[in-house]
Amino acid sequence: xxxxxxxxxxxxxxxxxxxxxxxxxxxxxxxxxxxxxxxxxxxxxxxxxxxxxxxxxxxxxxxxxxxxxxxxxxxxxxxxxxxxxxxxxxxxxxxxxxxxxxxxxxxxxxxxxxxxxxxxxxxxxxxxxxxxxxxxxxxxxxxxxxxxxxxxxxxxxxxxxxxxxxxxxxxxxxxxxxxxxxxxxxxxxxxxxxxxxxxxxxxxxxxxxxxxxxxxxxxxxxxxxxxxxxxxxxxxxxxxxxxxxxxxxxxxxxxxxxxxxxxxxxxx
Length: 268
Hints:
By secondary structure, the chain is α+β, with helices and mostly antiparallel strands. Helices cover about 45% and strands about 15% of the residues. It has helices at about 15-25, 50-70, 90-105, 165-175, 185-205, 215-230, 240-250, 255-260, and strands at about 1-5, 10, 30, 35, 75-80, 80-85, 135, 140-145, 155-160. The strands form 4 sheets. The chain has a 3-stranded antiparallel β-sheet. β1 (about 1-5) and β2 (about 10) form a beta hairpin. It starts with a strand and ends in an 8-residue tail after the last helix.
């Protein structure tokens, strides 16, 4: 493919893209101190270009290949993470070996430590397997208790927010240092941070929303500390501050985004 810029010269767009990709792959890694480490292969871990290059390459190396050779096996892929739905363990093992060969033909290597055959255990599949859960896009898929439309409980293989995502959310909330913002009102704080909380709720609360309740309880404990610092009558009285905050959560459940999904302030 060629293109003609304004100065009238021609250049090969595909060749230029290949040059940029080669530079990305060969560029040394640099740490926070400015030290550079040469890299022999692959894109940098966490690099912003890594998902884009993975999508471009695997679209042909895996997606198109799967559609041609295994059209009856559905799959999902995001960057270099993929889930393939097989009917039996034997079929999954054969497909894994075929993918290893296919990726080797394309100059890629499958990470066998991260590639697992998972048994989707539920009330209809009650066997046992070495791996019975997996994580994908911030969700952990595993057997969970569920209730059908008749009110009867059963075990289903369902997604919910993963432990890694929970840890990341809590670390970010801790970094807000809400308990030190005594110059703000509780409404100001809600207006500042609700967009972030609402984003978490909408994404991770799409499935098994009740698992988000323990995720946001530490946030309420931080708000209790904030109240103790802001109001003299609550200073040194965390239980009284918790009662005060709980009354607000009941009276104004839409003030904070996590209160909207039913989270209520726990009183020690």
